[in-house]
Amino acid sequence: MDTAAAPTPLAHRVRRLGHLDLPGGGQVIVQGDHAFVGHMEPPHGTTILDVSDPARPRIAAQIALEDNNEHSHKVRVIGNIMYTNLERTSRRFAAKAARFNPVRAELEKSLKRAPTRAEIAGALKVEESELPQLEEWSRTGFPRAGFRVWDISDIANPKLIAHVKTGGVGVHRFDVDEHYVYISTGMEGYGGNILVIYDVRDPARVHEVSRWWLPGQHIAGGETAEGPFDAWHLHHAMRCGDQLWAGCFNAGLRVIEISDIHKPRTVGAYNYHPPIGDPTHTVLRVPHQLAGREVALAIDEAHGRRPGRIPAGMWLFDVGDLGRIQPLGHFQVSELDTPWARKGGRFGAHQFQEHVEGTLVCCTWFSGGLRVVDIRDPSSPEEVAWFIPEPCGGLPSPQTNDVEVDARGLVYIVDRHCGFDILEIT
Question: Are 79 and 93 in contact (CB under 8 A)?
Answer without folding.
Answer: no
